Every structure is written in structure tokens, then in C-alpha cells.
Amino acid sequence: MRSGSCVALPPPPHPASLRKPRALFVYVMLACAGAACGAEDPMDDTGFPVAFDDTPALLPCTPRPPITGFVRAEGGKLWLDGTRFRGLGANIYYLQQQFTYGLKGSASATAQALAALDDAVCLGLQVIRTPGYNDSQDAAAIRPLPGTYREEGLRGLDRAVAEARARGLRLVITLTNNHADFGGLPAYARWEGLDKDAFFTSAALRRHWEDYATMLVNRVNTLTGVAYRDEPAILAWELGNEFRCRSCPDTSALTATVGTLARHLRGLGVKQLISDGGEGFDDKPALYEGLSSRYPVEGAEGSSYADLTALADVDLPSYHFYPRTWGLGAGGDADLWIRRHEEIAATLGKAALFGEFGLRPRAGSPTPDRERAEFFERWLTAFDASDGSLALLWQLIPPARILAGNDGYGVVLGVDHVTTKVLHHWAQRLGP
Predict the structure, then answer these.
(1) Model confidence over 45-86: pLDDT tens digits?
(2) 343-348: which pairs have CB atoms within 8 A and are 24 or more residues apart?
(3) E strand or H helix that includes residue 73
(4) What span, in angstroms and rounded, lies between the C-alpha atoms of 183 and 424?
(5) Which residues contact residue 26 at a Cβ distance below 8 angstroms, ignoring those fewer than 6 apart?
(6) Is the separation of the CB atoms in 41 and 329 below 8 Å?
(7) Helices and strands per DSSP (H, E), number in the chain
(8) How many Å apart are CA 432 and CA 415, to the nearest integer?
């Protein structure tokens, strides 16, 4: 999630620690004609007004159907049992951690994780994205040291998968992180005495990823009795969250590494889809003509979305969107960013994963909930118009985590009433 800006500054900290009748909406439709479509105006920072009020949302909390079959990718779309699969989901990054705390005796931690999953069901969401690794020094760690796997931490992940499956929720599981949260590449680098960017050139660093991936996909879940590689509740594996290589001279090393990791994972016999997990940064600005800032598309972060999408073993190319963090407008730039990423993937016969989208309301905003809701309405309208397959908001948190886990981007049921109604509407519109 969200690091970087419109200039190459060190990234800020990563947060640690959806076919029913359409609701009546009031849309402000923008007439777009080439470069005139807001994208050249950095002040185009407007959402689409919505007709929902700020009274508490009355959600049906309808149980989801049981998980059956694997989601497949073909012809630029996702499919489940011969039917088009589209949906809205959310990032819930703390499931493994909180369930592990629960194993250590914290009933409140278990309650928080269960509440988040229950809130996802109430919203009508279909998919949850969550870390499947923990290389930190935290009490919930899975691998605090190379080759040292803590069964308790793995059982916390087992519980996350089992509880999601029991609720009919599918998972996108991330295998490492560019950022230091839960260890990630910085932990690999510390173990080897190298910089984290060495991951893209050092076989020693990559071996830590390969060892972990091999262990996890072959693990049999202690609660479901199903090996991770055979688990239909897992929709996709993400090779890593937001890989970047600022010290790389170009984007070739990162692209090659992602290709190597994807081949390794495919060779382990996983039945799920494979995603790179990236932000959608590129090194081909001509593909994004009209974007108000070149920063995300000039190769400064060592990543090329177009090249990653072309990799044979990447089924689900990933992109994220944090406009204000990246020096982009949240209006016209959003329309262009979403449309172009979906088009690039479709041109290459792939379905894209809109893996994170989030907005921190402006400081002092008199109506922060409505501000976020109107931007989500605009972004999801653009996503739907682009025939996107899967979009995941950052982030969903239960009321009990407002103080401990809200980075300013969190959506809280029972608090953010307008945003909740917008998300529920789109969940019903996009998915069954």
C-alpha cells in the first residue's frame, strides 16, 4: 500500500502495525474528449455526488454461497464454473496476526479478525486480500529467522483461510512485501547483510522467498485438511506486495525476477491464479497520455506494468491507486489510470486486478465520509465502464481497530455510513 510521491522521495511507512437492480444515483457526468478529459488539469480532484445520506446503513448481511471450484482466467476475463466472475473486495491485512494472537490467549484479537470478515459479508464483498507471510519479530511471526517456521504463526494463517472459506469469501494471498511490515524484503536483506533492492539481483535473497513459497503451498491446513495449493478459497497468489527497485538502472531486473518467481510458483503445482502484486507503475508514459504527473509511469520505481502483464506466468497483473500520494488528481487522472491499466491487460489477453484503492480525506474536511464515498463512486464507475474484473479497497477495519489500525484510509461499518452504502451498492452490482 501507498508509498511514494510525485518526486523520488523515500516511501512513507506502510500500515502495520458484488446482479440486482441499480440504486438511484445522482451522477455528475464529465464530457471527455481526448486530453480535455480532466487528466491534464491537476486540479481535477472531484468525485461523483451520490444520493445516499449519512444515516446508518441497514445491511442485510446475507450469507454467501459455499466455495466451489477455482476462479479461472481466460480471454481477458475471470470465470467461475463457466460464468463470468466479477467482484468487489477489500484488504484486511491483519488476519494472520490477530488469529495468532488469539492462539496465544487474546480473545479480543480473534474477535477483531472475525468482525472484519463478518463486515465483509455484510457489505456483500467477495474477495479479501491478506498477507500470507510474517517474517517479523512480532509475537505472531511465522518465520522470524531463515529456516525457522513457527507452527503457531502458521496456524493463525490456517484460521484465516478456514474462516474466510466458511463465509464464502475468496482470498488473494500475498507472499512477501516490498515494505517492512511483517518483515518482507527488508527482513531478507537484513538476514543477508544486503540492501532490499538486491532481491532483484541476488539469488541468496530470492531463495528466502522460494523456500517460504515452497513450504506454504505444500502445507496442509490444520483446520480444513486441504493443502494450500489445492484450496479453492484461495483465488490467487501474489508474488509480493508493491515490488519496487529504485536503485535499478531500468525495469528489466524487476520484470525478470517476477518472471522467475512466477515460474517457481507454477512449478509447485498451484491450482490458483498468479499475480505480481504491483502498483501498476510503468516506464512507458506514452501509454498514459494525459496523466497530470509522469512520476508513476516514467520508470522511477524500476517497474513496468506493461512488461509484467506480458509475462506468461502472470495471470492477473496488478495495479493500485493512491492519487494524492502519487501527485495525481483523484478525478480525471483516476479515470485514465483505471481505464489504461484495464485496457493494457485486455490487449494482452489478461484480466487485471485492481488490488488496492484508497483515499485519505483532506485534513479538516467537514464531511470526510462523503468525500471518500464520492471518489469511490467515481473510481468504481470508471472500473465498471472498463469492464474490470476485481477491485479491492484499502482497507476494511472493524470499529474495535479504529485507534489501533486505522491509517486514515480505513472504512468502518457503523461509522462511515455513506461510503458503506456506496460499497454495498457496487458489491451488489458487480457480483452475485
Answers:
(1) 788 999 899 999 899 999 999 999 999 999 999 999 999 999
(2) 343/386, 344/287, 344/305, 344/306, 344/309, 344/317, 345/76, 345/309, 345/317, 346/76, 346/387, 348/309, 348/310
(3) strand 72-74
(4) 33
(5) 49, 50, 51
(6) yes
(7) 11, 11
(8) 26
Strands laid side by side in the 83-84 sheet? 72-74, 77-80, 83-84
Grid cell in block for residue 203: 539469488
At position 83, the amino acid (one-letter code) is T
The three cell numbers of residue 186 are 527488508
Q: Could you identify the residue written with the cell 461523483?
A: 48
CA distance 321 to 328: 10
Could you tell me the domains of the chain? 34-430 (3.20.20.80)
Using the 8-state DSSP alphabet, how is residue 52 labeled? -
Compute φ and ψ for 79, nearest 5 degrees. Answer: -135, 145
What is the spatial distance between Cα 124 and Cα 314, in angstroms, rounded to a whole number? 28
Which pLDDT tens digit goes with each residue over 156-202?
Answer: 999 999 999 999 999 999 999 999 999 999 999 999 999 999 999 99
Q: Tell me the sheet residues that pair with 392.
A: 89
